[in-house]
Predict the structure of TLC domain-containing protein.
Amino acid sequence: MDDYAPATLLDVSLFFVFLCVFLGGYYRTVLSPTGRPDGFGNSSVISNLHSVPLCALAFLSLNHIIPETVPICWSVSFFVVDLIDSIVRREAMWFVHAVISLALNLLTGSSARHRALRSVSKGFFAEASTRQVSQTLSAIVFFTTKTTTTFQPFLNHWKKSKSYSSYVVFFVVFTLCRLIWVPYFIYTTYFYHLNGELDMLIWPSLAFCLLQFAWYAKMCMIAVNYKIPKDLMEQFSKEQ
């Protein structure tokens, strides 16, 4: 396969080092005496630990200061643990999100031309709104299933203030990062840099976009009929 770019020994080493970081986070937030079942997914510390360094690494990659594989290894290590967490908690939505994210990371990172274009690093700026969004999107999940980065501080601010204005700020950031930036960079990648030539990576990319639009539809409903569910208020109070 001419487009295949194999992983190096350094890539594998970085992956396992980074994996230990997030496994340590999983132990601290879930398995330790002070942990709880939803501790990993709802931890702002873990969320910041993933998204803030990831955006910084993506910036360095786009400026050709570090290899593209460094932010990829960081992201893959997180989503491996996130996938395990979603399986243990039986969270279908986050399972789908983790699978799509891993597919995008691994498939795009193993493509020589996408690696040369730094496609993954461009996509990582979607994390500037982030799940990381899970803290804010937990409200959406309550509305739909009754289950439970700009950067993560916007999420934490909304969690603390629970105000409509802070939700609007996060809503705008999510719109810019995931509804505008992601489709834009996918379009420019395929129709400008690759001259309209599509490959198999377009499918997980479209799946990711559809997931964002599904979340966004629920976020619009919350923005119009703003009300924080009682269970979510109690959850936020415990996390203060």
Summary: Residues 131-153 have pLDDT under 50 and may be disordered. The radius of gyration is 18 Å. The chain has one domain: 9-127+186-239. Residues 164-193 form the longest helix (30 residues).
